Amino acid sequence: MSENQASAGPAIVVERLVKRYGDVEAVAGLSFSVPRGAIFGLLGRNGAGKTTTLECCIGLSKPTSGSVRILGLDPTSARDFAALRPRIGVQLQSTSLPEKAAVGEVLELYAAYYGITPRAAEMASRVGLEGKLDRQIVQMSGGEQQRLALALALQHDPEVVFLDEPTAGMDAFGRRILWAEVEALRAAGKTIILTTHYIEEAERLCDTLCVVQRGRIIAEDTPENLVTRYGGDATVCITADGFSPDDALRGLGTWAKAKDEWQLVTHGEPGLALAAVVTHANAISATVRSLDMHRPTLEDAFIAVTGETIGEGE
Amino acid sequence: MNVLRMFAVQTRMNFLWYFRRDGEMMFWTLAMPVFFLVLFSFAFSQGPSGRSATFLVPGIIGAQVLSSGFWGVGVMLATFREKHLLRRVYLTPMPRWIFFASLVAYRVTLLAVQAIILVTVGSLLFHVRITGNPVAVLIVLLLGTATFVSLGTIIGALAKTTESANNIASILTVPLAFISDAYIPIDRFPHAVSSALRLLPSTQFIDMFRGVSVDGASLASYGVWFAVLVAWTIFGTVVSARTFRWV
């Protein structure tokens, strides 16, 4: 595509999206925008409305109200949807393919759908299925099927890639492959939107993260900023015979003592505080029984904004 | 060009995938019509009779066309939707009609193989002779397949689950085979009943197929019924296109 098109506005714009199923409001007025070339994540528990949002973006679900534009096109309009389909790649949460289809055949068929030269062997090896072109869907593990689904999403070199819980059911090998592919897409300047309930994956892959709860976005920022804004303070805990903080240590933050353990809550750099605490303990010859430092994580931030752990969902 | 390649690859995959899946059932798919032919030929006459077999061969093929449309396509589409196969295909740029056209191509080929086997058995055992123009026979077979695939697609569109599609298909297919001049000549019913039954597209198709294949009638002499079946096909296609759900 031309430079012109590439720079024309955000890749994805979702405005006040609402999706109701009967009395249930799966998505309750959700807005976000994804610039071209960005990797955007929707993080939340199962049932938070992430998949429904994604389905509205790719024309699988019709919004009750609100609007969606992908590359400026409206997926609810038949004409726009036809123009959009060749330009997007999709890995659904559960991609189901005919069970007697072989890996190479599926890749060949999808190449025909997109009018491109089949690259079955290359795509198979990119997703760790090298030498398995004759393997039938029914003989493959869930993780292998997900990796094939990833290959189908990427074979036609789409501009915008939608990944719905891409590593659900994948082992560590599959996860590494997906992460490497996302990095390659980032380098190629593609736009990616993904949903996940894996904190580590969200933090590692996404430029911008939306925390989704009960169909709403309750926080949106870079992973680092989410931690800084919502993760809370760092703590240093020490149990040492005869230990008590001196004035210099008291200046680092708030100290509290529970049983034998002293806890320092600091908004400064916890590594430096830790060093100062250990130096002081040595200076007063206090024997250190236990020592622990905790830096706020994305998970802390998630718990702080949602009031719940991410868990495995309902 | 791209569209032709899409159609060619999709049709080849239909054969590979469905044939592998149907592998164990294939024997029965091909053997059942032969079994019906032999059974009914003996049941309806005192002994092996060329006349009843000549009636039955096109009738059984016609009944296979019905079940191919209602079961083979209608129920299969409902299953595909339930298993989320359709939604994945829906997201690709493939024009929708290619998906259905290649289903028709797969079904009509299977039906042609069934027809050849049935005609061969019929001619060897009962001296059935296909006197019609083979091109006309094939045209009628194609039209009938298109009609009942398009009507079957409505089942696939409206049924919410595989189970309900199954129920609708069995309610339609089995009785229709018996009242559409396929196994039993409807002349044996009272005149008012048989006249009413001739309004069914299944009766019209089976009578036209029989006329063109074994009675040596010309396609032109069935012009009106041909047009009516084309109208049914258009009806089925329009209703399917309006009601079909990929998700």
How would you describe this protein?
Chain A has 2 domains: 226 residues, Rossmann fold (3-Layer(aba) Sandwich), CATH 3.40.50.300; 63 residues, Alpha-Beta Plaits. Chain A has 12 helices and 13 strands. By secondary structure, chain A is an alpha/beta fold. Chain B has 247 residues and is an all-alpha fold. In chain B, 79% of the residues lie in helices and 0% in strands. In chain B, helix 5 packs antiparallel against helix 6. The longest helix of chain B has 42 residues. Chain B is globular and about 55 Å long. Chain B starts with a helix and ends with a helix. The chains are: A alpha/beta (314), B mainly alpha (247). The interface between A and B is medium-sized, with 28 and 23 residues.
Secondary-structure topology with pairs:
The complex is a heterodimer of chains A (314) and B (247).
Chain A: H1 3-6, E1 12-21, E2 24-34, E3 39-43, H2 50-57, E4 65-70, H3 78-84, E5 88-91, H4 103-113, H5 120-126, H6 142-154, E6 160-164, H7 172-187, E7 191-196, H8 199-205, E8 208-213, E9 216-221, H9 223-230, E10 234-240, H10 247-250, E11 254-258, E12 261-266, H11 270-283, E13 288-294, H12 298-306
Parallel strand pairs in A: 3-7, 3-8, 5-6, 6-7
Antiparallel strand pairs in A: 1-2, 1-4, 8-9, 10-12, 10-13, 11-12
Helix pairs in contact in A: 4-5, 9-12
Chain B: H1 2-43, H2 50-82, H3 85-90, H4 96-126, H5 134-158, H6 162-179, H7 191-197, H8 201-213, H9 223-243
Helix pairs in contact in B: 1-2, 1-4, 2-4, 2-5, 2-6, 2-8, 4-5, 5-6, 5-8, 5-9, 8-9
